[in-house]
Amino acid sequence: MTSIGIYGSLGRMGRTVADVIGDAGATLAGGVDRQGDCRPLAHEADVLVDFSIPSALPEHLEAARAAGTPIVIGTTGLSAKHHQLIDEASRDVAVLQTGNTSLGVTLLSILVREAAERLGPDWDIEIVEMHHRHKVDAPSGTALLLGEAAAGGRNTQLSEVRVDGRAGLVGARTEGTIGFASLRGGSVIGDHQVIFATEGERIELGHRGEDRVIFAKGAVRAALWLANQPPGRYRMGDVLGL
């Protein structure tokens, strides 16, 4: 059976991934959390799953490359430098990076991309997300994933059209922009809504995460798929053949 190692093993997601590995027909190779040496696990596991923190990612990628072990990255709050490191690592090992491992969100991103492509620039796009009070990054990785999908449907870069958290006298909405609003409170696992609005009508595409286990199951499915892939950079859509 495929053995899966977990980086960030004591966090909410790390513990949940460990709970579902057996049900997927895989085995747990072990886990590493803060201050732990990540290198031995990279050699012991057939594939790694990372739900740690952005500052730990460079070391985890280095360990995966040295061991030749594929790695699924579900850590959010990544910078452009992190993505550069992921690109570099993907030359040597299979790397799947995503802002959300839910299969439902994966399909939602495909629908958002298609809607953005077909509806045209006179439809405004706004993304609203809500998470529990302990989440430290905003917008969420999932919201950015959906924003990338929308921007891709319009053949543009999200960085060129992104607008975060409007406040004050910001003026009229600029055509073609993609707006983000982030809500935090309670124990919300993750709610995301993509709103397409034009004169006289509105389309709303959304997803509500009701149990953290959906992300864990998706991560394990991605890990089992990635374990058999050649070096390269992959996304959750590849796991579903989308």
From TrEMBL:
Kindly give the Pfam families that the UniProt entry links to this protein.
Answer: DapB_C, DapB_N
Q: What protein family does this chain belong to?
A: Belongs to the DapB family.
Query: Mind telling me which residue stretches traverse the membrane in this protein?
Result: none
Question: Where does the UniProt entry say this protein principally localizes?
Answer: cytoplasm
- Give, as in the UniProt entry, the pathway in which the protein acts: Amino-acid biosynthesis; L-lysine biosynthesis via DAP pathway; (S)-tetrahydrodipicolinate from L-aspartate: step 4/4
Instruction: Specify which residues bind (S)-2,3,4,5-tetrahydrodipicolinate according to the UniProt entry for this protein.
Output: 132, 141-142
Write out the entry's keywords from A to Z. Amino-acid biosynthesis, Cytoplasm, Diaminopimelate biosynthesis, Lysine biosynthesis, NAD, NADP, Oxidoreductase
Amino acids binding NADP(+): 39
Q: Which residues form the Dihydrodipicolinate reductase C-terminal domain?
A: 104-240
Protein's name according to its UniProt entry: 4-hydroxy-tetrahydrodipicolinate reductase
Q: Which domain of life is it from?
A: Bacteria
Task: Determine if NAD is one of this entry's keywords.
Answer: yes
Could you name the Gene Ontology cellular component terms for this entry? cytosol
PROSITE patterns linked to this entry:
DAPB
EC number(s) stated in the UniProt entry for this protein: 1.17.1.8
- Asked if the keyword Nucleus belongs to this entry, the reply reads no
Q: How does it assemble?
A: Homotetramer.
- List, in alphabetical order, the GO biological process terms annotated in this UniProt record: diaminopimelate biosynthetic process; lysine biosynthetic process via diaminopimelate
- What does the record give as the active site? 131 (proton donor/acceptor), 135 (proton donor)
Q: What is this protein for, i.e. what is its function?
A: Catalyzes the conversion of 4-hydroxy-tetrahydrodipicolinate (HTPA) to tetrahydrodipicolinate.
- Organism listed in the record: Sphingomonas lenta
Cite the binding residues for NAD(+): 8-13, 74-76, 98-101
Domain (Dihydrodipicolinate reductase N-terminal) ranges: 3-100
| Catalytic activity entry | (S)-2,3,4,5-tetrahydrodipicolinate + NAD(+) + H2O = (2S,4S)-4-hydroxy-2,3,4,5-tetrahydrodipicolinate + NADH + H(+); (S)-2,3,4,5-tetrahydrodipicolinate + NADP(+) + H2O = (2S,4S)-4-hydroxy-2,3,4,5-tetrahydrodipicolinate + NADPH + H(+)
